[in-house]
Amino acid sequence: MSDPDKTRASDLPMDLIKERESFVRSFLKKGVEYTEHLLQENAQLREELGTLQEDNARLRAQIASDDAIRDLLRTVEKLEQERSALLERSSELEEKRQEHQGRHDEIEQEVNDLANLYIASYQLGASLSLRRVVRHLRDMCGQLVGAYGFVIYVLDAGTETAYPIAHEQLDPSTIVPVPVGVGPVGEACLTGIPRIREDGSADFIQGTHDDPVAVIPLISDGKPVGAISVITLLEQKSQWMNVDRELFQLLGAQAGTALIAANLYAAAAGPISALAGVRQNLTAAEAASSESTD
Known about the structure:
Layout (H helix, E strand, L loop, with lengths): L3 H7 L3 H113 L3 H16 L1 E10 L4 E8 L9 E2 L3 H9 L3 E2 L17 E7 L2 E11 L8 H25 L4 H4 L3 H16 L1
Antiparallel strand pairs: 1-2, 1-6, 2-3, 4-5, 5-6
C-alpha cells in the first residue's frame, strides 16, 4: 500500500518541494530558537526570583533587627528614666541624712553641755571642804569654760574690798585686792552684773586686769559676795558657746553659796556639829515669818 502524501509530494514540482522543505527547516529552526529563548528567559526569571527571595529574606531580617533595636532603645530609655529617678531619690536621701546628721550633732552637743552643767553643779555641792570647793572652781573655770588666766575674789564685809583667794597662770605680783566699785571686778561686786566680752572682738582671748575677758559676780541670797575675773582664754577658744554662758550663770548662782557653806563648815567639828541649832533656828525663822505675815 502506497503513502498518499508521499505520492502527493512526489507529485509536486521540485521547486515547491524545496520551498516546503526550506519552510519546514526554517519553521523548526524558529521553534528551536524560540524554545531556547523561552528557556533563557525562564532561567533569568528563576535567577531574579532567587534574588528577590534573598532580598525579601534580608529585608525581613532587617525589619526584625530594627524592631529589636527599637525595643532595645525603649528599654534603654526606660532604664535611663529609672536611673534619673534613683539619682534624684539618692540626692533626697543624702539631704535627709545630712539633716539628721546635723540634728544628731546638735543633740550630741546638747547632751555634752548638759553633762558639763551637771558635773559643775554636782562638784559645787558635793563637798564642804573649802579647799575642794576652791579647787572645783578652778577646774571648772579651766576645763569647762576654757579660762587660762583667772582670779577668784571674795568680798570682805569689813573693808568693802574683794580679796583674791585663788588664781591661775597669772603673775602673782599683778593680783591685788580690789575695792568695791573700782574697776571691772569692783563694779561686778557692787552691781552683781556680769561683764562678758563679745564674740569676734579684737584679741578675744587676751585681756588684762583692767579689761578682762569676763567678770562673773558670785551671788548668794541675792547679794554679790565675790567675783571671778577671767583675764585670758585658752588658745583654741575662739568664741563663747551656749554652754559657756550657762556655766557662767551656774557659777554666779552657786559658787558663792558653796564657798559660804564650806567656810562655815570649816569651823565645825563635823557634819553633825554643823547641824547644831538647826531646829532652833528653823523654829525662830518660822516664827519670824509668821510675825511678818501678820
